[in-house]
Amino acid sequence: MKILIAEDHRMMADGLANLFSKRPDLQVVATAEDGQQAVTMASKYKPELIIMDVNLPVLGGIEATRQIKTMFNEAPLGIALIDSLTGNFCEVNSMFGKIAGRTMEEMTSIN
User: Mind listing the domains of the chain with CATH numbers?
Assistant: First the structure.
């Protein structure tokens, strides 16, 4: 599964990428440091899952998510909005949490 991480705090982005790298079926195809980069990279790499910080510079995570959802229209795409300050996250659509038949717990567990 191709993953895009949109997070302006490098330590958080690196931690997420490291977590996903432990699973051979998950591939972080790009990281973005602001919302505009996230929109550009989503268009370029066509990820199946995007982990999007809500509080991104240049273009906020919520607006970036709106633009990406419009761009992808009905394509199978999961987006999780996270608040890196509190650790809270929410799903943007019903695809997240069961994308590609996996729960978030299954995606991050290390076998």
Answer: 2-108 (3.40.50.2300)
Cβ proximity of 37 and 72 under 8 Å: no
The answer to whether 45 touches 30, Cβ cutoff 8 Å, is yes
Strand segments, DSSP code E, in the chain are: 2-6, 27-32, 49-53, 78-83, 88-91
pLDDT at 100: 40
* Of 11, 10, 77, residue with least CA distance to 39: 77
| Model confidence, pTM | 0.76
Token pair, residue 14, equals 């690196």
Q: Identify the band that residue 111 occupies on the pLDDT scale cut at 50, 70 and 90.
A: very low
Structure tokens at 63: 């607006």
pLDDT of 32? 97
